[in-house]
């Protein structure tokens, strides 16, 4: 039995992971002769989703049961569930063995960001998948909410999370900006055309509400302030300067890696969805050796025969 391609969809809570999975599943079915069946797997023990699920971690363990039985909170419950999965990897293996090497699985993972940054459970699951032969077949897709990119500070924090996940998961990595339909095209283009995080901070960081603009605002207006107020303002100015130096250092770090880039995804635009799909395919050279799969119109699901 060969090994199918696997996409691990990760990212902060509410960033749009499940919607991404559903979008890809629906898009796969619109591809005519190249129609592709994305099998979506739910690996989030707390998830509620709308896609057709191939298999579901909640058949093994669910956060609700763990919270009730072990009196844990939602975060502790989720970490417990993922560790339970790690101890019961034969469940995952049995399910994965049902898929052939020309098939494609999208794994909808939990949104707790600590699972991709400092709790090693996802790394261990990935290591096991690598041992089972999926080493060259896996790509991680890190989903970040595009409404973040319109604010420089949030953009930088999203970039750091993406970088941290990339380093931690050690897989071919694609960052996807979800919810682009909610962001004005002009502001999105403005951000995406920046050549570096440092440039982004220089240009946008001076905007309203940023640390830099606060810094300008806080320049003392001598006549209007008492000595006490001036002292306070100077103290805050010094703090702003430090924050700015820290931000510049963080931006330089992002630029040094030169590896944080985002692919915008507008779920209402087929070209945008296609572009994301091609980027993830390219990351693992998916489909380069595959025969084109055709539709069999006599078969209910249309995947019964090659043309
Ligand atoms: N307009 C718009 N809304 C979106 C998009 N993606 C997600 N949403 C909305 O954002 C909310 C969260 O989306 P989900 O797909 O559930 O996000 P998630 O990352 O799976 O969430 P968790 O599993 O809780 O971490 C939902 O209300 C979605 O309808 C998008 O591309 N466009």
From TrEMBL:
<keyword id="KW-0547">Nucleotide-binding</keyword>
<comment type="similarity">
    <text>Belongs to the GPN-loop GTPase family.</text>
</comment>
<comment type="function">
    <text>Small GTPase required for proper nuclear import of RNA polymerase II and III (RNAPII and RNAPIII). May act at an RNAP assembly step prior to nuclear import.</text>
</comment>
<dbReference type="GO" id="GO:0005525">
    <property type="term" value="F:GTP binding"/>
</dbReference>
<protein>
    <recommendedName>
        <fullName>GPN-loop GTPase 3</fullName>
    </recommendedName>
</protein>
<dbReference type="InterPro" id="IPR027417">
    <property type="entry name" value="P-loop_NTPase"/>
</dbReference>
<keyword id="KW-0342">GTP-binding</keyword>
<keyword id="KW-0378">Hydrolase</keyword>
<dbReference type="InterPro" id="IPR030228">
    <property type="entry name" value="Gpn3"/>
</dbReference>
<dbReference type="InterPro" id="IPR004130">
    <property type="entry name" value="Gpn"/>
</dbReference>
<dbReference type="GO" id="GO:0003924">
    <property type="term" value="F:GTPase activity"/>
</dbReference>
<dbReference type="Pfam" id="PF03029">
    <property type="entry name" value="ATP_bind_1"/>
</dbReference>
<comment type="subunit">
    <text>Binds to RNA polymerase II (RNAPII).</text>
</comment>
